[in-house]
Amino acid sequence: MKLKKFTAPTTREALQKLRAELGEDAIILSTKQTAAGTEVLAASSQDLDVVTEKPATAASVAPASWTRADRAQLAPQESPRQPTAAEKVAQQVAAQRDVLIKKAPAVQHALPAGAPREFAPDDMISEVAKRRSQAASESMVSEQTAVLEEIKQMRQLLKDQMAIMTWRDSLEKNPQRGELWNLLTQSGFSPLFARTLVDKLPVGLTETQMQDWAMTVIKKNLNVVPAERDIVETGGTFALVGPTGVGKTTTTAKLAARCVVKYGADSLGLITTDSYRIGAQDQLRIYGKILGVQVYTAQTHADLAQLRSSMQRKRLILIDTVGMGQRDSRVAEQTKILTDSHVKRVLLLNATSQPETLDDVVRHYKSTGLSGAILSKLDEAIKIGGVLDVVMRHKLALHYIATGQRVPEDLFPADPRVLVHRALRSRSSQAFQTSSEELKWKMAQVSTTGL
What we know:
cell membrane, membrane, 17 helices, alpha/beta, bacterial flagellum biogenesis, Rossmann fold, FlhF__GTPase_dom, three-stranded antiparallel beta sheet
């Protein structure tokens, strides 16, 4: 049997050469990829007939060389013949080629954008195998992820259960821990702060002793500026900053009045940068007129520098700034102008705001450092534990507390005893109080997550 090799860049071209030389009945024995392209090994059907020819027997009168027609006539009389190895290979290759040719449109349709659209059968085999392997891998990863997520949930559930059991045991040994937790959280302090204090609570205290202990700890953690070192006494240049509606202009007027009463009108300089709100400058000018102090406007860095230079002999210079939400992009610009001008910034915190909002305000305004804070609207706040929590967490120095709109009466130096007593004596309405079961669950949750 004569075997011939046909080599071409693609399988399709190799098959065309094969058919042109050996005819449509040629038998393909193998195909493989080489450096020169696709190599096809084939033989003509006549050569294969010679290989499979049987010798004549006494019972047979057939000629020595059988034709295809002779075999067809004698085939019913012969027993089934097993195909040779060459025939098996040829049949498998032909069957595989036919299947791939039928599936070629679907495979090519599934190709990614930009891929060549003419795919050889061997290339199709590789692509199908690759896609099946990728699908199996993705399925395995998905199953593993689901299993890991279930394990994670089970671990968290067990952890929560253990934390609840631990807290119950702790409460049985020291019931005051639960009472202190409830006292602090109902007063507006964060669960994290409450957990920190509860963990350090001594054993064997009465309820009164427990409250006294908590008040002492909170007072020690509040950084309050002594009266003899407040803004009016130390002097300098201070800008009152903060979001809109916290009382910056009114507080500026209160500080100005304290300074004028103690050191005279010549000791004070007043500057406003608020040109956004209608009537904002007029409001401060009215206060300045009452106090006998001229109010100046600075809208740029150059204006502020010039005014500061002209007020060098003033004991105290107060700057009323425009109110900006903590996420306003102008906050960074305002901070840079004041910092470059060597102006100390004092942040006003509205005691009626949510603790989460206050924490966000401090984080945005604290970028380059603050010289302290003033608590405003304490007369409107139901609970002040939240604002004290934020002040302690960010280690802010407290200068004053503002309790109303009257100028200058409703401004007082910060007193830790007054603040802590007010914080722990305030209570939420019944609708916002926590039940005993909710309390246990929350305590266990904070113990587990730390939040």
